Amino acid sequence: MRSFGSDNNSGVDPRILEALAEANGGHAIAYGDDPWTAEAAGVVRELLGEESIEPFFLFNGTGANVVALQACTMPFHSILCAATAHIAVDECGAPVKLTGASLREIATPDGKLTPELVRPHLHGFGFEHHSQPRVIAISQTTELGTCYTPDEIGALADLAHRHGMFLFVDGTRIANACATLNVSVRAMTVGCGVDIFTLGGTKNGLMFGEVLIPLRAELAQHIRYYRKQTTQLYSKMRYIAAQFIPYLREGIWLENARRSNAAAQMLYDEMNSVKGIEITQKVESNAIFFILPRRVTDRLRERYFFYDWDESRNEMRLVCSWDTTEEDIRQFSEYLFKLTADG
What we know:
By secondary structure, the chain is of the alpha/beta class. It has 15 helices and eleven strands.
């Protein structure tokens, strides 16, 4: 069943399957001591123009987020994030459980933190009765599909560094942001003063796997141990790493992100003329948030799978994938127009 439920629901890019098949021949030393992992690490360095960094390959996004935050914090620290952040809403408390640090969730209108929103939470430094602010954590793109510009990221990095803190970027959909803003991953991270970030792939054509990239040596120091303790060290690492070689070197990451973004814009153009619809967020990547009467969305669910976002006001989310087609959009739009016309 094809749907707009999530970019996790899509299949694997055939070029990635080819890379996996090629890596499947013969034996290779386990736990990352293989030629594919070494080559993939080199490709990440090439992408960022940073020869000294050490990328770490992991199973999934939640695991990558947790390991990144473990590298940044002690149990008496706090992590500042948007109230809609994945680490706050969709990770079953894993960041708190596995770091011991507390989360301070900050309300935002569009999923984006700003220095103005963060500053009121920067207090209690050196006071033993308070958790010590240590990390500003943002998602790129945000959970509302909006994108931080490099200047906006840089402003948050400057604020964090002035207070002896780190800026972490959950980059599960960073490819979509790069495609929207027409900037490189380097400009989005190294160039903005980001301290540590994840580079996603599972939502953008990979079978599985993420890569965690610390940009400060002190954060890289213990990540290999956190990765093992957090059950994110894959013995057959070559299968994660092999995917990232063509994904990054051949530009699949950007090509697929452009496809999913373009599909979302096409779907938005169709939905924007639906009778009675309210599009609740800017469509800046591959997600659309909308409100329609419940009688319409209940019937829409009979044919399509998608998630509620805010049940209190019947706000829904649609997500386009790298393999979303014009025919997918046409069929969905025709059915939606029919439902609203009937209503």
